[in-house]
Amino acid sequence: MSSYRTLQWDDRTNTLVLLDQRFLPHRIQFVTCGDEQQTAEAIRNMTIRGAPAIGAAAAFGLALAAFRCTSSNPQEIRERIENAARQLASARPTAVNLQWALTRVLNKLATAEGNPEDLRKLILEEAIQIAEEDVQINKKIGLNALQILPEEINFIHHCNTGALATVDYGTALGIIRTAHEHGRKVFVFVDETRPRLQGAKLTAWELQQLGIPFKVIVDGASGFVMKRFRIDAVVVGCDRVAANGDTANKIGTYNLALAAKAHGVPFYVACPTSTIDLRITSGDQIPIEEREAEEITHLEGTPICPQGTAVFNPAFDVTPAELITAIITENGVCYPPFIHSLSGVVHPA
């Protein structure tokens, strides 16, 4: 796999450098964010995407706010950071990692003392810690999945959940990567993932880099693929998991879970515990982001629908817990009833 990282702090300029995923797989291009507004826009326009990645980016966005505030008054720096947190939180509402990372940094700030330079250093250190922890969490998820995977395994994977969707390594794609790196015989059917084609563009690119065999399929082909071929597991990521196990993920995940249930295929969710939201009891309470009509009516800038076509474009759907075989976290594998098992991994004894 290439050494490209989704995001990187530049110590020389105190800026955040992002791999611009809108141009992959055909062009490697980076974007530099100099303040919290630019970071929020990069999250909103999907320069960077994936729940763990945007959480880390938001934390660095608060560091940018601290460094761009030139005041010598610590209270003014705190106010700038709090305002930045509100702006960043509104960039994309479904992924709970965004608010989780912001809250973690703000809680650190609330108990901190010192001069402005001390505060800037503390916030940056916390953002770096969040980023580094993400890599280790992803690797633990992959290792925990090994115990439930056969030696030879055909996957179906939805959207992109690899190194590009995280700080590095990946969640659901990290499970596939771990299986491959531990000598399992792996093959992946990759959903193209309309409307932005994260599967066809990003997941296919990552699997190619990793040397893992795969084929891209259209989203509507998953049921036929399960009927025609031996599929051992569907593995997906998540953007928010409710206390009962209902899981918000990229639009099309619910359909895929229904197809898996109909064909008796295990359906696994790869989930950092930071994505579990025990404050909400079910998926009915998860806010679902709706995006621009042009994502559906246009393809690579070219119109494909009649002019004036009305569009409903939810970015996510919610898969009911009863369709999920297991939720794999860095602290262990959770099985139904999730209302008990999820709280155990979020608050381990």
Automatic annotation (TrEMBL):
Enzyme Commission number(s): 5.3.1.23
Active site: 239
Gene3D superfamilies membership: translation initiation factor eif-2b, domain 1, Translation initiation factor eif-2b, domain 2
Cross-referenced InterPro entries: IF-2B-related (IPR000649), IF-M1Pi (IPR005251), IF_2B-like_C (IPR042529), Initiation_fac_2B_a/b/d (IPR011559), M1Pi_N (IPR027363), NagB/RpiA_transferase-like (IPR037171)
Site features described as Transition state stabilizer, chain residue numbers: 159
PANTHER family: METHYLTHIORIBOSE-1-PHOSPHATE ISOMERASE
NCBIfam families: eIF-2B_rel, PRK05720.1, salvage_mtnA
Identification of the protein by name: Methylthioribose-1-phosphate isomerase
Source organism (scientific name): Bellilinea caldifistulae
Species lineage: Bacteria, Bacillati, Chloroflexota, Anaerolineae, Anaerolineales
